[in-house]
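Please decode residue identities from the backbone states below.
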């Protein structure tokens, strides 16, 4: 999945998103998403990269717990046939929930 394909997929959610982060002072009101290709997990054969796999993180930020929006994100990921894992944390300094979806694409 390319950078452009991820952006097209996130467009389906109709909430603001950015790669890695929003510029200082330009962060929208929650909810919003940041996504990041954090590395690769390639498959090798004959001492070369045979198949490329990228590690993709999609971070959903909300000021209140929002199970309905999480369901929407998960429905979009599922509709694109992505296998994902989910975790969640409260960021006290930002007063935001971060729901993290991690996958290899």
């Amino acid at each position: 999945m390319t950078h452009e394909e991820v952006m097209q997929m996130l467009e389906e959610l109709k909430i603001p998103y950015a790669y890695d982060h929003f510029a200082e002072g330009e962060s929208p009101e929650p909810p919003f998403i940041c996504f990041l290709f954090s590395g690769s997990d390639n498959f090798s054969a004959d001492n070369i990269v045979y198949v490329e796999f990228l590690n993709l993180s999609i971070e959903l930020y909300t000021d209140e717990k929002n199970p309905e929006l999480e369901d929407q994100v998960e429905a979009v990921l599922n509709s694109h046939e992505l296998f994902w894992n989910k975790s969640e944390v409260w960021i006290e300094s930002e007063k935001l929930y971060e729901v993290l979806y991690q996958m290899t694409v």
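Observation: The mean pLDDT is 96.
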